[in-house]
Amino acid sequence: MLRFLLFYVLILFTGCTNVYKMSPEFVPRVIETEHFQIATWQRVGDATSSVHVYIEGDGHAFDAYGRPTSNPTPRGNLVRQLAERDPSPNVVYIARPCQYVTDAHCSVTDWTTGRFSARVIDSVANAITVITSNRPVVLIGYSGGAIVSGIIISRHPEIHTTEWVTIAGVINHHEWTEYFGDTSLTDSLNLNELPNIPTRHYIAESDNVVPYELSMRWLNGKFVVVPHSTHDKFPNLNLF
Question: What is the rounded CA–CA span in Å between residue 111 and residue 56?
Fold first, then answer.
């Protein structure tokens, strides 16, 4: 109970306006890693089955004027809702560093130019390792969480990832920022090649954040276009 209360105290102090609460089956837990505190919600009830891990996108990293925010906590709930709809016995939602928590180790770099840095990637990987305890893992990455999950697969082979699923995924941030004329993510790692494991990629029919042209280039056309969807709305998507 103390950890539960602490988690919501941390959320309160972030000043987050996102008051969406996951199903009571999902237990909130903050994972301490070497570099960050990682917010998670977990429904883990089977000691032998694989664990489906949903990794959040970049969140509210920039405001409407393109300026870095002081709090990258997502405004939307797409990834948490997808996790809730997953019928698997073991499902985990993992926020990115500095989302939903107040953490003295965080700086603006961690959700801007360094959003895919080694310490960000390794911290999320560490949280996954703590939660999954050597069980097989299915990694599901949304938007910027796609590249996070892809780099984890290549950088952390100790995590037994059996499938990689992306939703509206950024796969190559160099090409993504260049496409929009945005500032390069100079403090970030990049995904230079796709992991050699079973994969599924879903893109939105109308996506202005990760355009079809880029998804086609990155994935060689090997993806599913979800009808009536946008970057942050996939009303008819059921992954499992």
Answer: 12
Confirm if 164 and 198 have CB atoms less than 8 A apart: yes
Backbone angles phi, psi at 188, to 5 degrees: -115, 150
Domain annotation for the chain: domains and CATH numbers: 2-230 (3.40.50.1820)
pTM strictly above 0.85: yes
Distance between CA atoms of 24 and 235, rounded to whole angstroms?
22
Q: Is the pLDDT of residue 15 over 70?
A: no
* HSE-up (13 A, CA, CB side) for residue 28: 22
Contact assessment for residue 101 and residue 9, using Cβ atoms and an 8 Å cutoff: no
- Tell me whether residue 18 is exposed, middle or buried, using C-beta atoms within 10 angstroms of its C-beta: 0 to 12, 13 to 18, 19 or more: middle
Which of 11-15, 147-151, 227-231 is predicted with the least confidence, judged by mean pLDDT? 11-15
Burial class of 204 by CB neighbour count within 10 A (0 to 12, 13 to 18, 19+)? buried
Instruction: Give the mean model confidence (pLDDT) for residues 28-32.
Output: 97
